[in-house]
């Protein structure tokens, strides 16, 4: 096993869902942006990247958010809470995404045009429920990557689905295009996260 594989294995094994944070530890906006840049290398359906992030660091705002998030302590004590939003209208990203790939030399102009045309035809015609499922799935991928990137940098996280989404939408004036998927606390642990066990993989895997 090479060094990079060992490092990744260590990050995966050391990641814990942490709920007690050092309230004095502050992570800069620049570092949070770096973490998000790495996180957004995650895959997504047709590379449409149907996600948006709201980074909440203001202390008073975190106190208000805590009430929306079922009074979970980590919302207030973490350095930041990152709200991961799913984009129901991800097809609007198509032209920008594929033109960027063309300009980077990753696809030719014919392929670019075909991808743009197919995206503008397929996604708007899909039922809203299907687009929401795609956005939720891809938001999960980018969130998991975000947690691993944070752990690799020595920080801790916990994903939270337990919050009042309608109140969140109203509080932060979230556009109808986006839907809140989860909140993710980011900071430094004041107490270690509880270790957990897993169902033996042999019981949940079938080779065919």
Automatic annotation (TrEMBL):
Keyword Amino-acid biosynthesis annotated: no
GO molecular function: oxidoreductase activity
A Pfam family matched in the record: Nitroreductase
InterPro entries referenced in this protein's UniProt entry, alphabetically: Nitroreductase, Nitroreductase-like
Domain Nitroreductase: start-end pairs: 12-188
Keywords: Oxidoreductase
Organism annotation: Mesobacillus boroniphilus JCM 21738
PANTHER family: NAD(P)H NITROREDUCTASE YDGI-RELATED, NAD(P)H NITROREDUCTASE YODC-RELATED
Name of the protein described by the UniProt record: Nitroreductase
Protein family per UniProt: Belongs to the nitroreductase family.
């Amino acid at each position: 096993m090479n060094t990079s594989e060992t490092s990744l294995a260590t990050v995966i094994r050391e990641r814990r869902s942490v709920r007690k944070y050092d309230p004095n530890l502050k992570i800069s906006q620049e570092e949070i942006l770096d973490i998000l840049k790495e996180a957004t290398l995650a895959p997504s359906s047709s590379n449409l990247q149907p996600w948006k992030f709201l980074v909440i660091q203001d202390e008073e705002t975190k106190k208000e958010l805590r009430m929306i998030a079922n009074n979970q302590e980590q919302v207030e004590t973490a350095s930041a809470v990152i709200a991961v939003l799913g984009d129901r209208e991800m097809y609007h990203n198509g032209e920008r995404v594929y033109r960027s790939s063309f300009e980077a030399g990753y696809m030719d102009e014919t392929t670019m045009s075909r991808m743009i045309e197919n995206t503008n035809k397929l996604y708007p015609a899909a039922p809203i429920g299907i687009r929401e499922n795609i956005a939720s799935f891809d938001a999960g991928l980018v969130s998991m990557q975000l947690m691993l990137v944070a752990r690799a940098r020595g920080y801790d996280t916990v994903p939270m689905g337990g919050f009042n989404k309608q109140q969140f939408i109203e509080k932060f004036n979230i556009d109808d295009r986006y839907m809140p998927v989860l909140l993710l606390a980011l900071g430094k642990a004041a107490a270690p996260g509880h270790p957990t066990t897993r169902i033996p993989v042999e019981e949940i895997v079938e080779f065919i």
